[in-house]
Amino acid sequence: MGFFTDTSVCIGCKACEVACKEWNAVPEDGLEFTGMSYDNTQGLGADTWRHVAFIEQDRPVSTRPDDGTVPSADGNGGMRWLMASDVCKHCTHAACLDVCPTGSLFRTEFGTVVVQEDICNGCGYCIPACPYGVIDQRKGDGRAWKCTLCYDRLGVGMEPACAKACPTDSIQYGPLDELRERAAMRVDQLHDMGVEDARLYGHDPEDGVGGDGAFFLLLDEPEVYGLPPDPVVTTRDLPSMWRHAGAAAAALAGGLAAVFAAHGLRDHGLRGGTR
Amino acid sequence: MSTSDVGREGVRGARPDREAMIGQGGHPPDGRGGRRRGRRGEKAMVPDAEFGSYYGKPILNPPVWKAADIAGYFFLGGLAGAGSVLAAGSQLTGRPAAARALKISSLAAISGSTAALIHDLGRPGRFYNMLRVMKPTSPMSMGSWLLAAYGPAAGAAAVLDVTGLFPRLGRAATAGAAVLGPGVAAYTAVLAADTAVPAWHEGYRELPFVFVGSAAVAASGMALAAAPPRETAPMRTAALCGAALELGATKLMERRLGLVAENYREGTGGRLMRAARALTVAGAAGGALLGGQSRTAAVLGGAALLAGSACTRFGVFHAGIRSAEDPKYTVVPQRERIRAREAEPA
């Protein structure tokens, strides 16, 4: 089970952010006015499990030249707003889950990734391990928190709060196969409409994280939305890392042994070494 | 004076600050986005890497680890681990004073590093959760188990040496600590590298060698400072070898890292790495040449080696934080990876 977020129909209402906070009783995380855009939440964190990005661009909404789009007064071709609701990706190969030393992070029966808050000991290892910058430490609590894909709602057959609250069905919840099929159709539809920049992100089970349990339809490059263009689960390289560390440890032990062998017993050594 | 220009076609030039940010990389909010190339502001020969980002916000969530705790943990772990090897070597080759000093320093260092680790947990009371599972995919889990085995061995080696009780058990503990010590010194490199932090992850091949080299530097520095010069000849050689390994591996890592290597040359990490180089070279040279004759030179050289090793660990730590905070180091290498993949014949 997972999410498909179609950002082409997101209106930036932030209902998902609010619904998530309300249902999961996520604390307030700063009533800050950033001035950078209308987005004052800024990004995902311990106390923001859904985040709606607002991207202002000097580009017309449509790329088709004959669709009657009126260029703006300064001849730049107008501007567009991209809005996108971001969330934990619930990776198939989840780095946070792999590196957690306590077993606090686990894979649920729905294929999602959830933190058991009573086991988490606040080591913070999952935070830099996440290639998407999702999970974070809650200040004053010390534990790591993130989207649970409303684990408590799924168990009783309800859809997650954000998907339920989304007024445009930008956030869709369901079996991943079905969502991927629907997403592919939507991309084709947008391409036919002349929106050539429409593309899917995180849908491919062959990608660096084995595909995301939450994937997206984007209208620009992922990094424009604050998403990494080619994320890789860090533990993919772990066997090689252990091998390199093993070689380094052997080099240290062997090198120091060689140094002592070269120096031999001390001149006035205990056993009468006379070198 | 206003920068906007009101004409028939509307307002032009308004809000220049934000216009620069739209849909482009923008600069990180702390204002150090203006990338300097070289140190004297010479002209860039390669254009600055262009990339998109969300208002210059980091893509990764940077580590929440405190530098004093975690970089300190890396340093103390190295000092303890390599110290145990040197202690065993000293004991076997008839250098009892050096062996005792190193056993004591290893016990102190491993106690300090464990305290730092527990202090860094948001919830120290839950430290024992570390030993709930054993997970090879989690370097921190493996490290916790390694510490659980190494710590008592290093402790017993020190206590039994000082008290003179159970000499056979003491020898076994010394040997055990020496076997586990290199692992303690090296695994922290995997701990750092098994993250999405570009300056750590991309350097995973060389980082363990940087760390064990730095560990050898720290432990031999400790021996130079704490043991009588007549016993420290192998440690002076070890300091030279460790320094050569550390500096060589660092150089190699920087070459491989490309753009990301900037984090080891600029900012706090860069300053610390430069200080580490200077201290390590000075300590190794001074300690190796003069440490045999003069106790003062040995103590000064040893202190410089210890400080150099600490600077390396803090430098690596800060380079990682800096690379995670700037989306450039996440986006540009990943873009290059995609381009390289697309260029490959299918």
UniProtKB/TrEMBL annotation, chain B:
Places the protein is found: Cell membrane
Say yes or no: keyword Manganese present. Answer: no
* Positions of the UniProt region annotated as Disordered: 1-42
Against InterPro entries, the record matches this protein to:
Electron_transfer_protein, NrfD-like
Q: Pfam families under this entry?
A: NrfD (PF03916)
Q: What is its main location?
A: membrane
- UniProt keyword Nucleotide-binding, yes or no: no
Membrane topology qualifier = Multi-pass membrane protein
Q: Provide this UniProt record's keywords sorted from A to Z.
A: Cell membrane, Membrane, Transmembrane, Transmembrane helix
For this protein, the parts annotated as crossing the membrane are 70-89, 142-160, 172-192, 207-227
- Lineage, top-rank taxon, reads Bacteria
Q: Where is the composition biased (Basic and acidic residues)?
A: 1-20
Q: Which family does it belong to?
A: Belongs to the NrfD family.
Protein name per UniProt:
DMSO reductase anchor subunit
In its UniProt entry, the species of origin is given as Actinomadura algeriensis
Q: What is the lineage of its organism?
A: Bacteria, Bacillati, Actinomycetota, Actinomycetes, Streptosporangiales
